[in-house]
Amino acid sequence: MKLNFTYSRILMVKKTKVRQNGEAPIYLRITIDGLRVEISTKKWVALDKWNATTQTVRGNTEDIRLTNTFLQTLLSKVDRIHFDLSLQDRIPTPDEIKNQLLGVEDKPEYKTICDAFDYHNLKMADMVKISKISPKTLMRYQITKNKVVAYMERKFKLSDMPLHELRLAFITEFEHHLLTVDRIQSNTAHKYIKNLKKIMNMAVGLDWIPSNPFNLFKCSYVSTDREILNQDELEVLRLKPISVQRLVEVRDVFVFCCYTGFAYSDVYQFQHDAVIVGLDKEYWLSTNRQKTGTRESVPLLPIPLQIIEKYKNDEYCIKSNKLLPVNSNQRYNSYLKELADICGIKKHLTTHIARHTFATTVTLANGVPIETVSSMLGHKSIRTTQVYAKVVEKKVSDDMKTLRDKLSLANTSPLSKIG
């Protein structure tokens, strides 16, 4: 495999270290792909005797000839070490060449891609401990690292790689791996790639590498339709008689999310102190979102208020100090499928659909301004909320198309031709 990288070595004098007698030390600088190291040759030269072009000392005395021979031999040794290391199908580092030149035990001083992930994830774990970020956010970066390692093992038969060896081709091939080997959707693949690019930018900031080799790779996201419940489906779900208590509780929590917009992870954490009295003297639900840490405050509509009241004296809620009887996520999604079957809802109910339903069916479709919806959802940018606005527009378009079809059929009926 042919490796493309830049390599140079140059002899130079350190004008900042001139002795009183006018002599300066001669240094050897080795540079590979922007990474450099400088080595003292232990030789000194008068500034006016140094020829920067030929990298030699001017003069013809025996001492000068010996010095020049020493310097040229040094350059030849560096070139030989560089050549030998290049035969190992990887890009050598200046520190490796320096260590071999000086006879120092070869201890890698470069950072690897796993070093970068571990550094980032340890810092993030500290943030999780003080509730600054969600454990799910940390988990996404841990999964990203696992996928990068799996890709390297498949592609290069390696479990780690030095950061300075990474090129743009690494990330383009990683994308191909995610799409064809892991068979995940393009949007999901690009979320992993976005995480990887962030890790590399961090490495640049820490001076582990001179630049991010992945900067030219642009992540693109395909707009997808968000699954939501329409008003009829929401009413069927809310009012359907159900005899199984665990499904009643799951239904109540799901409906609560549909009318408040909070994610499952937030509702799972809610205690009674999350309910506050707002400036309008009405009840509000307020918390920092687990996912983003953004403050999210929502006025409580009558339906979620009724659900809170229903479980005020619930034994489980009192014992666990929870606002609602929320199951673990895995069981919750499983019960939602069962609930959908009972209610005759053909859609695949998930915890996310409830939040999407609040943004569309409950608020935007009923004329709540998008700025208000964005604030209640805790979005940092209104652009995030505009995705839901497009869902509402599509629903309006579909409904109007149905109406047009009905009117068209009416106009072509026999009655339309009478007279």
From TrEMBL:
GO terms for biological process: DNA integration; DNA recombination. One of its GO terms (molecular function) is DNA binding. Keywords: DNA recombination, DNA-binding. Residues 224-405 form the Tyr recombinase domain. Pfam families: Arm-DNA-bind_5, Phage_int_SAM_5, Phage_integrase. InterPro entries: Arm-DNA-bind_5 (IPR035386), DNA_brk_join_enz (IPR011010), Integrase-like_cat_sf (IPR013762), Integrase_catalytic (IPR002104), Integrase_recombinase_N (IPR010998), SAM-like_dom (IPR025269), Tyrosine_recombinase_XerCD (IPR050090). The keyword DNA-binding applies. Gene3D superfamilies: 1.10.150.130, Intergrase catalytic core. The keyword DNA-binding applies. Belongs to the 'phage' integrase family. This is Integrase family protein. It comes from Fluviicola taffensis (strain DSM 16823 / NCIMB 13979 / RW262). The lineage of its organism: Bacteria, Pseudomonadati, Bacteroidota, Flavobacteriia, Flavobacteriales.
